[in-house]
Structures are given as structure tokens and as C-alpha cells.
Amino acid sequence: MIRNATKTTVLRALRTRAVSRGYASLAEKTFPNEPTAPAVATAIPGPTGKEKIAALNKVFDSAATTFMVDYEKSNGNYIVDADGNTLLDCYAQIASIPLGYNNPTLIEAAKDSKTISALVNRPASGNFPSTNYAEQISGLLKYAPKGMTEVWPGLSGSDANELAFKAAFIYQAAKKRGNADFTPEELESCMRNEAPGSKPFAIMSFETAFHGRLMASLSCTRSKPIHKLDIPAFHWPKAPFPQLKYPLDQNVEYNTAEEKRCLEEVEKLIKGWESPVAAVIVEPIQSEGGDNHASPNFFKGLRDVTKKHGVLLIVDEVQTGVGATGKMWAHEHWGLDGDGLPDLVTFSKKAQSAGYFFRDPAIRPTLAYRQFNTWCGDPAHIMITNAIFREVAENNLPAKAQEVGDYLYKGLTAIQSETGKISRVRGKGQGTFIAFDLASGAQRDQFVVNMRSLGVLVGGTGAQGIRLRPGLLFEEKHAKIFLDTVKKALEQSKA
After folding, report:
1. Predicted confidence (pLDDT) at residue 438 exceeds the cutoff of 90
2. For this structure, is 316 an active site residue?
3. Where exactly are the transmembrane stretches of this chain (predicted)?
4. Is 374 a catalytic residue?
5. How many domains in the chain?
6. Catalytic site residue from 16, 175, 374, 480
7. Residues 53/65, Cβ–Cβ less than 8 Å
8. What CATH number has the domain bearing residue 412?
9. What are 121-168's pLDDT values in tens digits?
């Protein structure tokens, strides 16, 4: 028994015993030196950060820079800026950090000789794959969405979606062509960017969707004008996405009718668009466009409509994939099975690599160089992805994200009721993919600043929303800090 020790010493001794007995949380075991609370000493950015931003701006467009980060000092769920301010990160590099900063498992994976070889030799995997590339790809497929038997790697979320579009176009053209060869007219006209060689196919997306910033993916992005201004675009159809009323249990009749209306418009557009719709692309949760949700029934109906008309369904899991919604893949919440499964699922962000999974072998082109680029993905990052998937699966992190998400949702709905300063708390049952609205865009922007000054980093979404995107080792103790800080930030805001 310890009689004369200080309270701090006693607590440290008890914690040490707990760790030795296996009582410590995964975050504590992974990040034993993680800060216990935010610590802010200067404005953010502070003097050092402002100086570094100014230096960066001389060689790089830093207009969107929030603050400069000291990644070597960042640890677990905490991010450290150039001035030494320590913030609880509930945004995680726009949902792309899966397992916290400086995760030791990922550091070891990066040190592996095969990873180093892939970095310094950077294989052109389409022509000259490494001898262990099949092993790397098999690792991805082990954790692929249900029914997906093949994968094509890419370089980013935008790239993954554009590659999926290409796959859909090639598949639909091959289905029309049958076993016939390309005609001379097709071969000649495609070089002029004209039909019949350049097929007039379309990809359908939804209002307020975000699918990337490359040319074709940008044509499917509908979230903010600033993304699209001045950029040529394909004339592709845009369907309405359900705008649900909250709380859901008090608006069942309205929301059911709203989803029915949107599905009817989807079918109308597919049947009447000026060119054949090759595929429909949809996010399980519209993240950039406002954290907009729809029910499993809507997505089941979307699958039925696309199957009815021979249109491929692409599920964009770039932001929702890899566990944070309480499932490894968010579309698992829809309860699809068999032929009702999506045709293609794109991924990136938390996976730390990118690409698309697919289940029908006919989606794979039959000729070389049809789906191709120099690197065909990034083998070094695929090895990191495999390490991420193993950690997520072996530690059942989607279930842990669901537990923390339930705690967060309960806490935010209580704040909504108590203060009336936030509204439309949404994401129940969707892990930590939770969002809420402020009364206006200006109040939302001020709230983000207030939270940052109090040591918590959050992100905006849509016109006036706040979205949570913490990593998968974000636990209840971190969630409590977040909720307490929300109350303080709201007190600082104008009513």
C-alpha cells in the first residue's frame, strides 16, 4: 500500500498497473505519450506560423492554409502547430488520417524493406510490377467490400472516381459492341474526339455531391461553385439528393415522400437524358456538400432503378470508407446483397492509397492499355494501406467508432436541446460521421475559429454545417473534451 505518495504518484502507479494488466485503451497503448488535453498559448496561426506561411506563399499558393503543422511533434489524436499549440484533432486531415499521428504500426510498415524499395524504385506497375505485387493486391482484396473480387489502384480520390468512370464507359461500350472488333470509323473518329469512337456516355451524380477536382470528377461535383468556376465540364445529369428533415423519427412521412421523389427523378433522367447514362455515382454520406444522409431504403431503391436500366452503380467511399461510420464500408449499412451489391466502390483518404473495387469480371477491359497509367497506383502506399486494414480489422475499430459515435450523438443532441444554438444533429448510427448546423454560414465560420482557439480542430461542411471526422483511435475521453469545448465555443458565439 502506498501511504505517503502524492496524488499524482498514486494515479500514475494505478495507471501503470492498469496498463500491465491490459486495462489500458488501445489509444493509450498505442500513444503512451499522447497529450491529455489541448494546450493553446498563442493565436492560431501564431507568430512563427504566420512567418512560415508567408515564406511558403512565396513558392506555393497558401491561400487555403489554416495553420502550419509540426508533424514530428503531433501525437495520436493531437496535432501541434508551428507555435507549439496542441489541438485535439476532430477533422484528421479532412478525414484522411486513420490511426492517429505517428502511429508506431504504420511507422514500422514504412520502414519495411519492401516499402523502402517501392519508394525508391517506384515501379511502373502496369508494365514492370514487383515480384510481391500480387501479395500487395491480395492484401487490399482481403478487406474489400462484400462481393468485390478485383481492384484497380489509383493515386487519389479524384483519380479513383475518374478511373471508375472509364471502367464504366468501356464496360457499357463493350456490352453494346458484343464480340465485334472496333470499326475503322470508331478508330478514326475517336482521334477527333467525336462519335462513334468517342461514345456520348454520361455519368449521373447528385445535387450537393462532391467527387473530386479532376475534369470528369469535377463535372460530377455539385457542392460549391468555387470548385467549378471557369472549368469546362461535361453535360451530365444531376439528380436531387434527399433533403431530410430532423429529427428523423418525427418526420417519417415527409422523408419517405422526399426519397420517393428523388428516386422518381433519377429514373426520369436515366430514361430521358440526351445521352446514355453509363453509371450513377453516389456518396453514402454527402460529406463536402453538407453531411447529407439518406435512408437505406433510398439506396436500395437507387440500386433497383440502376439495375432496371442496365446502369452501373458506383459508390464513392473515398471519405466514408475504412471504418469511421461503424462499418468498414459505409454502404454495408444499406443491407444490400447478391446482385444488389454496388458494381464499383471507390476508396482513398483513410486507406492512404486509392482505387476502385469491382465484382463483375466483365468490368475489367479485355485489351492492354485501356485502363492504364505509368504507376497504376502507388505500391509503397498500398503496403501502408494493408497495415491500416489489418489494424482496423484486428482491433474491431469500426465497432469502437460506433460506440464513440453513439456517445457523441447523445451529447450533441443534449447540447441542441439545452442551448438551441445548434440544429439538425445528424449521423445517428453512423459511427463518428456526425454533423450539426449553426444558424448561418457566418456563425458556423466563427464557431470553427472559436473551437480552434480553445484547442479543438473541426471542419465545416455545406452552407452552415460542422462535420466531425476524427481518426479511429478517437475515444470517449477525447469525445468528452470535444463536447465540453462545443459548449464553451457556443458561449463565445453571438446568440
Report:
1. yes
2. yes
3. none
4. yes
5. 2
6. 374
7. yes
8. 3.90.1150.10
9. 999 999 999 999 999 999 999 999 999 999 999 999 999 999 999 999
The label of the residue with cell 466483365 reads 362
Nearest alpha-carbon partner for 357 in 395, 310, 389: 389
Q: Last residue of a domain, which of 370, 394, 418?
A: 394
Three-state DSSP class for residue 93:
helix
Domain check: are 335 and 420 in the same one? no
pLDDT digits (tens, 9 = 90+) for 60-98: 999 999 999 999 999 999 999 999 999 999 999 999 999
Q: Which of 52, 166, 327, 349 is catalytic?
A: 349
Compute φ and ψ for 315, nearest 5 degrees: -100, 120
Residue 158 lies in a domain: yes
Let me know whether 191 and 239 are in one domain: yes
- From the candidates 206, 210, 357, 358, give the one annotated as an active-site residue: 210
Are residues 124 and 159 located together in one domain of the fold?
A: yes
**Which residues on neighbouring strands pair with residue 466, listed in sequence order?**
436, 460
For residue 392, how many other CB atoms are within 10 A of its CB?
Answer: 23
Residues 198 and 56 in one domain: no
Q: Are residues 249 and 369 in the same domain?
A: yes
- CA 419 to mean position of chain CA atoms: 30
Answer whether 77's CB lies under 8 Å from 100's CB: yes
Residue where one domain finishes, among candidates 366, 394, 422: 394
- Given the residues 316, 378, 406, 437, select the one marked as catalytic: 316
Residue 245 known to be catalytic: no
Q: Mapping DSSP to helix (H, G, I), strand (E, B) and coil, where does residue 202 land? A: strand
CA distance 7 to 15: 12
Tell me how far apart the alpha carbons of residues 119 and 381 are, in angstroms, rounded to a whole number.
Answer: 9
